[in-house]
Amino acid sequence: MLKLKYNTPVLLLILVLSISYLSFFNYESQKKLLLTQMKSDAGDIVNSITAAMIRFQDIKSTMNLQKLVNDVSFGLEIFEFRYLEPDGIIRNSMFKEEIGNIYTAESFKQTMQGEKELKEFFFETRDYVDVMAIYYPIYRNKSLIGMIDLAVDVSEYKEIEGSHENFALLRRQVDIMNLLKAIEGSIANSLEIFEKTDVDKFLHGYVHSAENIVQISLIDANNTVRISSHSEMLGKKLNMQELPPPELVNIEDRLIYRTVVKSGLLDKSKDTQLMLLIDASPYAQNEQQLLKTALITSAIALFFALVIARAIYYSALERSRSEKERLEQLVKERTHEIEVLSKTDALTGLWNRGYLEEMLEMEFKRARRYGHDISIMIVDLDFFKRINDTYGHMAGDEVLRQISKRISDCVRETDFVGRYGGEEIVVILPETSLDAAQHIAEGIRKTIAQKPVIFESYTIEVTTSIGMSHLRQEHTDYLTVFAEADKALYFAKEQGRNRVVVFDPSIEVG
Amino acid sequence: MYGGYSKRLPVVVALVFMIVVFQAGGNERIQEECNATMPPIPLEFAMGTEAYNKAIDSGKYRYVGNTKCRLCHRKFFIGRKKDPHDYAMKRLEEGGYEDNPRCLMCHATGYGMPTGFVNRERTPRLANVQCEGCHGPGNVHIKLAKQKKPAGGFLAGEDHPERLEKMCKSCHTERWNRSYHDLDKAYIKYRNPNPNARKYVKESK
Fold first, then answer.
1. Mean of the per-residue pLDDT values for chain A?
2. A434 near A375, Cβ under 8 Å?
3. How far is Cα B56 from Cα A478, in angstroms, rounded to an integer?
4. Secondary structure of residue A286 in the 3-state scheme
5. What is the pLDDT of residues A222-231, one digit of tens each?
6. Which of chain B's residues have a Cβ under 8 Å away from the Cβ of A128?
């Protein structure tokens, strides 16, 4: 009980603390989740922008010949196929790994130095294979913008004829020229498209079509904004070191999520960075909502804990009080029981001799003080010794017990029945005249004589002799009255037993 | 310079000696080969006749020549140009055996099979022992590679090491087993784009 009383508040405190902790932990993890989600959203946006811009740049550079190159290379007997810029950078090639490198073939150098003609077929060995090659120039507005390097494997012609002048080779040259003219046309078309389209406008349109994107900017290796959806940003120099890492920033009272990723969009050097700003207000709203939920959860937990604590406190108080009352009651009952036990006779349950004498003295004193009537009778079993001898002491005890009960049944509530000793039972009848007492005594005698006592298989006939007396003027204490009743009892025994005798001074006991 | 020469001298002497010895024994072996039973088609030997017939009869497989392989495996192409396998036809021509079917079985790519080598005039691109000479027809592999699927599609590719081993063994017999003694060693050597290089160079795709 005591333990519980002190432990409960501690337990409740722990409960409240753990619920609060859990709800805040939940808040934190949800917040992280939201941020992660936004990050991945930003990643998706960056990817789609990158893809779109690559596509755009492909169109712009008109060099998306990869598919064409592959198809042509696999389908026809083409040995090498490149698109070169005038400065020798390989813009596109059937070998992906060399795109972006500078083309260093000897024949190319010779061509650029004017030792070899452009648009003329020549023979050389490439990768240990004899090839027939051509550098086909692409002009735009009368200036050279690029070259197609195309080579075919001619080793078999060399094997057969040992000459470059055979008819089959000439036919191939015509075919190749036709193919190159077709490619030139497609490049010219693409260039036209490119000139009509502007990458800034494209980005601007992209930002407008997506609601949550605020700005997209491409920053080059010198931290200068090269391309931006916002024209005022163009040419600005940003200090990338001063910018905090990708996170939430407040710009013009708006929560913005900023991410900066490397991208090789402007050139292949990979120093280009793409800066993306996304509107993060939905995130802020969600975060506030989460915080509110966590706070409310904690408050509710605290409130319930307080209510429970109060209830437990009062119920404990109530319980301790009722327990105290119960204990007091128990002590009282026990005390009474002990008291009664000390005054009663163990065998018959009647009052014992000590208490009987006490009561006799008190009742007689009271009666004499107030001048009231009081009678006394002594009931004695006839031939009790003979019962004991004949049926045994157990039978004698049983007879005494049953007779005691019959006597108790015959007297009134206010009368006092006690065992004086052996088979003698004394009845005190306060406020009772001798006549009334005699009537009761007669009743007792008859009740006993009427019905035998049954013990085991025995039927024991029992009679009683009763001697009576009552308080008169000349008596000074109860002993004289008791002695008178005793005398009357003797007289009754002498007279032949089973009778009631009232004391009379004329009685002579012999 | 001088130190390098003196270091190489014993090697050169040994090589000259070996060439003389093998040249002497070479003619005997050629005679032996000409009198022996017809050698098997390497791919048939490697796959077993039943599986071979099933694959070839399906019409799915076609020889394409190593210039196609070069589009993706350029390092291998350049590396193998320096390898004896690429001089197999030249060796035959030196001895005048370039029309002998039992020689062409091992000195050309896909000889004796539909779409395989026939002669230098009709199929100049399949002379010598090329990539397909050991791995089988390559058109299915190219088709898969163009779809950007994980490579494969060879009848004797990396996924069938037991077939590859038999491909080697079908030509490198007791009689002609000069170039290798330990298949595992040779296998590691030929995983290198340039099998004659000292250092292993990983192919970049």
1. 83
2. yes
3. 145
4. helix
5. 777 877 777 7
6. 78, 81-82
